[in-house]
Amino acid sequence: MGLFGPDYCIDTSALVDLRRRRYAPDVFPSVWKRIEELVDEKRLIAHQQVFEELKIRADRNDNLLKWAKTHKHLFTGLNKAQSEHVQNILKVFPKLIDEKKETPEADPFVIALAIVDNRIVITSEQPANIDVNKNARPKIPDVCKHFKVKCIYDLLEFFRQEKWEF
Questions:
Q1: Where do the domains of the chain lie, and which CATH numbers do they carry?
Q2: Can you point out the beta strands (E) in the chain?
Q3: By the 8 A CB rule, do 50 and 11 touch?
Q4: Each residue of 71-86: pLDDT tens digit?
């Protein structure tokens, strides 16, 4: 827990939902003001792999990628402790990533960052309920549950956690 509240690590899916799908800055500027305050306070961070995913998913006029480039301090690189956790995560959950993709997926890096820095993961991925469906590809909430990492997979719940009212 940071000085001003819990610390978070955000996944690509949550950033995409926030900026492109649900809370566009032209309609919800106060949401983005608060998000940027969390970034400036270093209470909200993302792994560098999230930035790499954003670059791959972006088109020329991508509003989210432009925002990410002006907030590069949001993104943090890989360190040795994270690397060890990424390896362990993929050992336990090899289907978390699609090995056919050229660029590594951010999911194990986001979870490893949360473990190392004791942060809450924010994602828009819903659990695959791998306890029930053994053949399902695990999602971030499933992996977080296994490693006892708090995970928020509902953006409104994130707003409630922060006690934001709009």
A1: 8-161 (3.40.50.1010)
A2: 8-10, 44-47, 75-76, 120-122, 151-152
A3: yes
A4: 999 999 999 999 999 9
107-130 residue pLDDT tens: 999 999 999 999 999 999 999 988
Q: Environment class of residue 32 by beta-carbon count within 10 Å: exposed (0-12), middle (13-18) or buried (19+)?
A: middle
Q: Do 64 and 19 meet the contact criterion of CB atoms below 8 Å apart?
A: yes
Q: What is the pLDDT of residues 88-109, one digit of tens each?
A: 999 999 999 987 776 679 999 9
Taking 3-state DSSP, the helix, strand and coil percentages for the chain, each rounded to the nearest 5, stand at 50, 10, 40
User: Which are the contacts of 50, defined by CB distance < 8 A and separation ≥ 6?
Assistant: 10, 11, 12, 15, 75, 106, 109, 110
Q: Model-level pTM greater than 0.70?
A: yes
Cα(119)–Cα(147) distance, integer angstroms: 13
Amino acid at 122: I
